[in-house]
Design brief:
The protein has 348 residues and is α/β, with parallel strands linked by helices. It has 12 helices and 16 strands. It folds into 2 domains: 212 residues, DHBP synthase (Alpha-Beta Complex); 105 residues, Threonylcarbamoyl-AMP synthase, C-terminal domain (Rossmann fold). The structure holds threonylcarbamoyladenylate (TXA) and magnesium ion. One of its GO terms (biological process) is regulation of translational fidelity. It catalyses: L-threonine + hydrogencarbonate + ATP = L-threonylcarbamoyladenylate + diphosphate + H2O.
Length: 348
């Protein structure tokens, strides 16, 4: 399949939206930037169009998709009701990185969008290109992250091309995404609402608006089935195995040395603070300062993907504080590591 490429500029933006919207309306798949990560979109009312998303990504069909809209009024066409908590959240955080799960009106969306559930995740992204394209298309657009299933989500058009060139109908390039991690998913069909996936809007920010919520991600043990089906798969992972090393600087350095002695080529992905104290090595890269978790979020997926272009056989990273967007950073690192931890306390 030939993938049409657009690079959005001030001069060509309207023409780009018209052409890309036309493909979406015709039942084709088009990737576009949002403020979180790039998404791969298709008409959410068209079963065959949505099937192309699952096919292109190699995504399990029991994992429902988020429906993107340009305007809040659009959601009345497929949502049964909007609970008052959800209304408050929309008022405060839309457009923005918050996906709200609402009760679904039957027979308005393709059934494969929601994987047969009676609820639907909805979001209005805060990105001029996403909003422009959605407004011109005038249809609800189902859009998961535009990566091959299991890989880190794409934060640039180049990442999308790496995974999906030749597998989708179009890619709208418009630089890097701002947040760098996916939207927070909150289930507002429950009382109190429950955060199913931490993301761009923190639990603290949400609770400041609607009071206490439940955090599935925090409370879930490994054995329980997650409510957001997407959270049960190994995700966001680079090719080389990733492990989270929890201990002081000396312990971290020792783990690198031991692995190198075993013949591993070790990639090191750490904060600026830790990087300063480790012996320089070829595949060591900084994520930014611990004092700025939003920088770490912004860079994480790009840096994880970087290792796929190196000969590393193993990647070591460190745990980050679960405050604000740090909660989402750790959630993604945990998933990427598949729960692999090396802890100092257990060694000694
Ligand atoms: O930031 C984002 O949310 C990006 C951009 C493109 O908007 N999209 C994204 O979509 O991350 P995706 O498909 O990679 O993740 C959607 C998550 C999955 O964990 C899925 O299980 C959950 O949302 N989800 C969607 N609909 C749901 C529903 N009705 N009930 C529970 N979980 C749902
Ligand atoms: Mg995804």
């Amino acid at each position: 399949m030939e993938t049409k490429i657009w690079h959005v500029t001030k001069e060509n933006e309207i023409q780009t939206y018209l052409e890309a919207a036309k493909l979406l309306q015709a039942g084709e798949t088009v990737a576009f930037p949002t403020e979180t990560v790039y998404g791969i979109g298709a008409d959410a009312t068209n079963e065959q169009a949505v099937a192309k998303i699952y096919e292109a990504k190699g995504r399990p069909s029991d994992n429902p998709l988020i429906v993107h809209v340009a305007d809040q009024s659009q959601i009345h066409e497929f949502v049964q009701k909007i609970p008052s908590n959800a209304k408050k959240l929309m008022k405060e955080f839309w457009p923005g990185p918050l996906t709200i799960i609402l009760p679904l009106q039957p027979e308005r969306l393709a059934t494969n969008v929601t994987a047969g559930l009676d609820s639907v995740g909805v979001r209005m992204p805060e990105h001029p290109v996403a909003l422009g394209l959605l407004a011109v298309a005038g249809i609800p657009v189902a859009a998961p992250s535009a990566n091959q299933s299991g890989k880190p989500s794409p934060t640039s058009g180049e990442h999308v091309a790496e995974d999906l060139l030749g597998r989708i109908s179009g890619i709208v390039f418009a630089g890097k995404t701002g947040v760098g991690l996916e939207s927070t998913v909150i289930d507002c069909t429950l009382e109190p609402p429950a955060i199913l996936r931490p993301g761009g809007i923190s639990q603290e920010e949400i609770e400041a608006v609607i009071g206490p919520v439940i955090s599935e991600a925090k409370e879930m043990t490994q054995q329980e089935a997650p409510k957001a089906p997407g959270m049960k798969y190994t995700h966001y992972a680079p090719k080389a195995p990733l492990a989270i090393v929890k201990g002081d600087t000396t312990f971290f350095q020792k783990q690198i040395d031991l692995a190198e002695k075993r013949g591993e080529v070790v990639g090191v992905l750490v904060s600026d603070e830790l990087e300063e104290h480790l012996r320089k090595s070829e595949y060591m890269i900084g994520l930014g300062s611990k004092a700025h978790p939003e920088e770490i979020a912004y860079r994480l997926y790009d840096r994880l993907r970087y290792f796929d272009h190196t000969p590393v056989t193993l990647i070591y990273t460190e745990p980050f504080e679960k405050v604000g967007i740090g909660e989402a950073v750790m959630n993604r690192l945990d998933k990427a590591a598949g729960g692999r931890y090396i802890k100092q306390s257990e060694e000694n």
